């Protein structure tokens, strides 16, 4: 009886949202306590573009100067939400202060721990309870996820926004849920513009699901898209007034394309990248600088299409396997298998997850990639990988039990 009660208690804790949240938060706070004392400036502030912009905002220079030693010129290099959030923290607790760093990192830890709970609910709703439990616990306890989630970057918020968007998408359609999805998509676009590759796909899937059984779905989705546009519009207007051209959210694609596609390209920043040497950026100004870098990249791609394809293939492999010796290659393979299995078994319900795996990384295949760029879709990856693991267990487990019982009878 005591063993049975213990097993029930462990099982109850394993599927408890509160327990999962607390474990995830504790893991992130522990990692934070290990990293901050020795490496606060080097690993969090020194090269951090959102922090530089936040410092410019609170110092009175406006939304400008994403890199150190740059002239105080307006920028659209970063989407605005996270730098402005950091600016609010700097205003409250001091620019570049140790206390501000703690506040920002703890806030990211809270976002990431909340994502663990959303993963649990997504797994239960779309796949099966065991898939949700497994994926949520991997997200909560894996130190790699904890380290990435507390960076001074938008990754934790982006992962949470995408996960909540998928949770909204999985629920029965109503005008209010569609409006919430539109609002969320707009906020996500102003947080991580790459998420715009996923949310339109979600709208399309929702329309395909409901256009026959719900006559109002087209109007509701139109309202959802309109609300998303309205959320983004003020920032687009700001960019037009500042730069006198249409820049919906950010202007850095030319620079990102050049980073991965130019003569002598390597896997680290070149010396003329503004984070190391802002001379060219200061001389040309942001818009002209981005245009020059894009022209250089496009010329390289046009003259060396074979090299571009090779570099793209290398970036594809790095996106799904980096960091090396971390287990990500196996997890990624399981996720792709899980995508195929879920689409075959769940139909349209699983299609948005396939969209996340296929669409989100495309811009990184074409430009350049670090393993941290993958973080916003890692909840999706872990869910699909867990679904594969659970499916294998469901197939192999009964066979092993049957074989064991047969051997026992023979003996």
Question: Topology, pairings included?
Answer:
Layout: H1 2-14, H2 17-45, H3 49-58, H4 81-93, H5 98-127, H6 129-141, H7 143-149, H8 155-169, H9 175-189, H10 199-210, H11 217-243, H12 253-260, H13 279-284, H14 286-303, H15 305-321, H16 328-346, H17 351-359, H18 362-366, H19 378-410
Q: In a nutshell, what does this entry contain?
A:
The chain is mostly helical and 411 residues long.
Keywords for this structure?
411 residues; mainly alpha; 73% helix; globular
Largest sheet: none
Count of DSSP-assigned helices: 19
Q: What is the overall silhouette?
A: globular
**Low-pLDDT regions:** none
Order of helices and strands: HHHHHHHHHHHHHHHHHHH
Total beta strands: 0
Rg (C-alpha, Å) = 23 Å
| Beginning-to-end CA distance, first to last residue | 31 Å
Arithmetic mean of pLDDT: 90
Oligomer: single chain
Estimated helix fraction: over 70%
């Amino acid at each position: 009886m005591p063993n049975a009660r213990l097993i029930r208690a462990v099982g109850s804790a394993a599927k408890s949202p509160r327990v999962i949240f607390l474990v995830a938060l504790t893991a992130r706070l522990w990692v934070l306590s290990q990293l901050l004392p020795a490496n606060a400036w080097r690993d969090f502030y020194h090269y951090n573009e959102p922090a530089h912009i936040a410092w410019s905002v609170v110092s009175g220079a406006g939304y400008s100067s994403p890199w150190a030693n740059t002239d105080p010129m307006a920028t659209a290099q970063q989407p605005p939400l996270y730098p402005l959030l950091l600016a609010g923290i700097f205003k409250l607790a001091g620019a570049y202060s140790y206390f501000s760093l703690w506040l920002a990192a703890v806030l990211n830890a809270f976002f990431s721990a909340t994502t663990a709970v959303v993963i649990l609910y997504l797994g239960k709703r779309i796949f099966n309870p065991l898939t949700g439990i497994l994926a949520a616990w991997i997200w909560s306890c894996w130190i790699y996820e904890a380290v990435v989630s507390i960076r001074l970057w938008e990754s934790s918020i982006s992962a949470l926004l995408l996960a909540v968007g998928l949770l909204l998408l999985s629920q029965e359609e109503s005008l209010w849920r569609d409006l919430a999805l539109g609002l969320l998509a707009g906020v996500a676009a102003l947080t991580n513009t790459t998420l715009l590759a996923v949310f339109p796909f979600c709208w399309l899937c929702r329309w395909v699901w409901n256009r026959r059984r719900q006559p109002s779905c087209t109007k509701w989705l139109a309202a959802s898209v309109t609300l998303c546009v309205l959320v983004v519009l003020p920032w687009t207007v700001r960019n037009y007034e500042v730069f006198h051209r249409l820049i919906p959210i950010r202007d850095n694609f030319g620079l990102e394309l050049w980073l991965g596609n130019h003569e002598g390209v390597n896997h680290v920043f070149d010396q003329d990248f503004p984070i190391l040497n802002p001379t060219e950026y200061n001389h040309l100004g942001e818009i002209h600088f981005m245009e020059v870098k894009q022209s250089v990249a496009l010329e390289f791609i046009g003259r060396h299409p074979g090299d571009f394809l090779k570099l793209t293939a290398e970036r594809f492999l790095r996106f799904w396997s980096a960091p090396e010796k971390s287990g990500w290659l196996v997890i990624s393979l399981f996720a792709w298998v899980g995508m195929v299995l879920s689409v075959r078994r769940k139909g349209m319900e699983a299609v948005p997850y396939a969209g996340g795996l296929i669409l989100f990384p495309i811009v990184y295949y074409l430009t350049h990639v670090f393993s941290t760029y993958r973080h916003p879709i890692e909840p999706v990856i872990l869910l699909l990988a867990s679904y594969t693991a659970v499916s294998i267990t469901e197939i192999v487990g009964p066979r092993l039990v049957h074989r064991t019982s047969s051997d026992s009878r023979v003996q």
